[in-house]
């Protein structure tokens, strides 16, 4: 797997048939290690161990619907009241962050209405604060710590 622009962590990878699996501590099971999963696992560990996001408030591949279509969010963090707080879209390191990717996560967030949106391919990371009244996305220099004023 590619070296990423996120802190390393102590991961556990095993092989099952033709697939490599990585242990996901949130789902408490091994999942197929794809390039996108590699980025997701790094992001989740960064959120928990560097930015103080509680494990219990993080959901991976949460189902949501938009225009009667079923979609899955890569990472959704909830606040202490159970409301969406941060929505993250993870792409493989070789996938560039394009306007189409930004549109994808913005579309998902129309339903969830998380005040923070993150897009990462493990090398480049983008974070925005969303104002739903003005429909403006304010770019942030970094992902805030959990419970920082957003």
TrEMBL record:
Residues 35-144 form the Type I restriction enzyme R protein N-terminal domain. It comes from the Bacteria. InterPro entries: HSDR_N. It holds the Pfam family HSDR_N_2. This is Type I restriction enzyme R protein N terminus (HSDR_N). It comes from Pontibacter akesuensis.
